[in-house]
């Protein structure tokens, strides 16, 4: 793993959260994107090398909608940049971690992504991210 890529924050009111974080960080989001396959809206704020991602569920069955119903607003996941997502997935499996994806999938912000089950990471949902070239 190279570095912390972003922190994902689940929000109920996407517009209000974007306004709040724009004021808080004194910066506009550099990207707002719908990820239809995941049923979410996302926005990204750059903070030095790391980013803040706001996530809003768009469908009742999206992971973000379910997270908000169960836990409320707040930190949803930590994402780490990797150079080779396939090799990192294999390494983590060999170390005993459970992955939520058999193969990486296309995520927001031009990334291939895979998630590590929180039950095997002290309750933290971990995302692996690799830039699509």
UniProtKB/TrEMBL annotation:
Q: CDD domains under this entry?
A: MMCE (cd07249)
| Record's keyword annotation contains GTP-binding | no
Domain VOC per the UniProt entry, residue ranges: 3-131
Is the Isomerase keyword given for this protein? yes
Q: Which principal EC class is assigned to this enzyme?
A: isomerase
Q: Tell me which EC number(s) this protein carries.
A: 5.1.99.1
Q: Which processes are annotated in GO (biological process)?
A: L-methylmalonyl-CoA metabolic process
* Entry's Gene Ontology molecular function annotations: metal ion binding; methylmalonyl-CoA epimerase activity
Q: Which UniProt keywords apply?
A: Isomerase, Metal-binding
Q: Which Pfam families match?
A: Glyoxalase_4
Q: Which NCBIfam families match?
A: metmalonyl_epim
Family that this chain belongs to: Belongs to the methylmalonyl-CoA epimerase family.
Q: What is the protein name stated in its UniProt record?
A: Methylmalonyl-CoA epimerase
Origin organism lineage: Bacteria, Pseudomonadati, Bacteroidota, Cytophagia, Cytophagales
Supply the gene name: mce
């Amino acid at each position: 793993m190279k570095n912390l890529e972003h922190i994902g924050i689940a929000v109920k009111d996407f517009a209000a959260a974007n306004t709040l974080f724009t004021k808080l960080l004194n910066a506009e989001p550099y990207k707002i994107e719908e990820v239809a396959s995941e049923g979410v809206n996302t926005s990204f704020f750059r903070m030095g090398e790391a980013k803040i991602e706001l996530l809003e569920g768009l469908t009742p069955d999206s992971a973000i909608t379910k997270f908000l119903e169960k836990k409320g607003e707040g930190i949803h996941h930590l994402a780490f940049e990797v150079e080779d997502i396939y090799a990192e997935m294999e390494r983590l499996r060999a170390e005993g971690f459970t992955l939520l994806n058999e193969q990486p999938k296309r995520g927001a912000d031009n990334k291939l992504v895979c998630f590590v089950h929180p039950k095997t990471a002290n309750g933290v949902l971990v995302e692996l991210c690799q830039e699509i070239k």
